[in-house]
UniProtKB/TrEMBL annotation:
InterPro entries: 6-blade_b-propeller_TolB-like, WD40/YVTN_repeat-like_dom_sf
SUPFAM superfamilies: 3-carboxy-cis,cis-mucoante lactonizing enzyme
Domain of life: Bacteria
Protein name: Uncharacterized protein
Organism, as annotated: Gordonia spumicola
Amino acid sequence: MIDRYDAHGRHVGAVRVHAPGSVRLGPDGRMYATSGDNPINMVPGLPLTGRIVSFDPAERKPAVTTIARGLGMPNGLAITADGTMYVGDSNLGVVKVRKNGTIDRAWTARAPKNLAPNRVVNGTGMNGVVVSGDTAYVAMTSSLSSRILRIPLSAPERVGVAADLTAPLPGSVDDLALVGDRAIAAATATGQVIVVDLRTGSRCTVNAGRPLTSVAVAPDGRSLVVASEDGSVAVVR
């Protein structure tokens, strides 16, 4: 279920979506969400039932439409101005989905895979995704250093390291949000919001005291909205 709240924190609606992950506003004014964010979709050999769905937030009772199929355990989602979607799939890895809903398999084959760690991809469970300019930044749920990957959109095989949020300790990063043009905010399952300056590497950490699953920049541009596994929603200023 995807719940809707107004600016005063009042629950004003809900849209039924199976096992939603990220929820994002598209350039066309519609809401997009990953569906199938369930650990059972990590089991090898099972059909790939993960999807991207869309609905009109202006409708009183939004109708949910399937935009893309064939994903594994889709979680993170970023949408560019031309409607291209990039998915952090905890089963398949980083997946590019065209505006028409088809998977760009050539691009995806060159992008980081899940369960295939190496010197740069030092973890598993592709999760939060944001796009800034010609670069995607991707978090991994399980990483030896809470690493955020830097992936050039034109050459996804040239993946690099954007930041190590908790090095030398491991961490559990979930969702990401782009703050301005030079910083990223990360929500962690251990209860922190970590904001990192991508140019300098400097970090600021806020302890929320509960496992966090998502983070987004508020409309005022100066606050972050974070959600927790206990169902609560909080504002970080």
